[in-house]
Predict the structure.
Amino acid sequence: MLHINENYQKLPGSYLFAETARRTRVYQQEHPEQEVIRLGIGDVTRPLVPAVIEAMQKAVAEMGVAETFRGYGPDFGYDFLVNAIREGDYAPLGVELAYDEVFVSDGAKSDVGNIQELFSPDALIAVTDPVYPVYVDSNAMAGRAGDWNGERWDRLVYLPCNAENGFVPPLPDRPVDVVYLCYPNNPTGTVLTREQLKRFVDWARANGALIVYDAAYRAFITTPGIPRSIYEIEGAREVAIECCSFSKTAGFTGTRCAYTIVPHEVRGIGRGGEPAELNALWKRRMATKFNGVSYPVQRAAAAVFTPEGQEQIHEVIRGYLENARVIREGLQARGFEVFGGVDAPYIWLRTPGGMDSWTFFDKLLADCQVVGTPGAGFGPSGEGYFRLTAFNSLEKTKEAIARLDRLG
Ligand code: PLP
């Protein structure tokens, strides 16, 4: 009989959102008269903008006409989208990308989860802590994380991020092959300055390490001078792969479109000790295992970079950031210690009185009927913290914050 990949059996259950949903359900069953406000979701709530919808509808119509019908698309994305990304997203940052360094995909989750296929089975991995769980789980599935001891994986290097270090990860204190960085950060909502990011790039260059840089929340950056792409840092083309997405930028969480940049300079050691380009490997992987994003969705994504598209998506993002401001300032006014929420849709707060994060979840639900996410679910250093998100209406967000006065 088949021997399965036992690494899957080492994974702890996907406990976090299942458990927050379960506790919310139980509360609602016991208190059907109460209206619960959800500030726990990491999903957008506003509709696709008109420029995107028009482009998608036009493309759908083309698919119904013999002359303009399209079958399989190019493996790495249609020209019109690849060039829109190069010219609309990267050129304004002063970053020049070759055409074949851009890979269009169905999601940043897929890309950050799949990229580890390019690493040797024994590669050593470092992650920030707390962390978006996909980096950890995808490496655990491949056996690189070692064993789960109930709190952490014994072969992963954790880079703790907390109020004490200003949520700036320390450099790894031992040799590692890959570091995953995500800025603006999920869950802490914090960003790195150019100098802080440069430290990682310099370290990676000096140590022959790779940085997987998840920039899914790039569009939320408003503070002048904060890098939107790791390639704004000198030398990053040698050491970094960058993953971006239309999900949070333009409301594509249900529509699905993203892109990953793999510069030709990024190399690893291959057979016979010879250097090998990761770009060539990623091309091979995508050509073998992926058949492209649908034509109407790629047309819709390209519309994000038109002047109307840009204006419309930034209007939506301004709305989410206004919610974030309401949450941040409302918490501060009530004496909470608050982080993030300026350049990101996430607000990270220290739980009051040293309460553990699940106890605070229960208390916020019971006293205020507000749902958030316990920090402990994002990694050991998340304990003592709590995440709220800006993905709700302004009205509900304001009401949720006003309800904090009921906290006993
Ligand atoms: N990366 C981070 C840090 C995220 O928080 C998310 C979604 O919440 C994703 C990637 C997933 O993006 P996509 O919808 O493009 O798969």
Notes: The radius of gyration is 22 Å. Residues 54-306 form a domain with the Aspartate Aminotransferase; domain 2 fold (CATH 3.40.640.10). Residues 42, 107-109, 132, 182, 186, 214, 216, 245, 247, 253, 258 surround pyridoxal-5'-phosphate (CB under 6 Å).
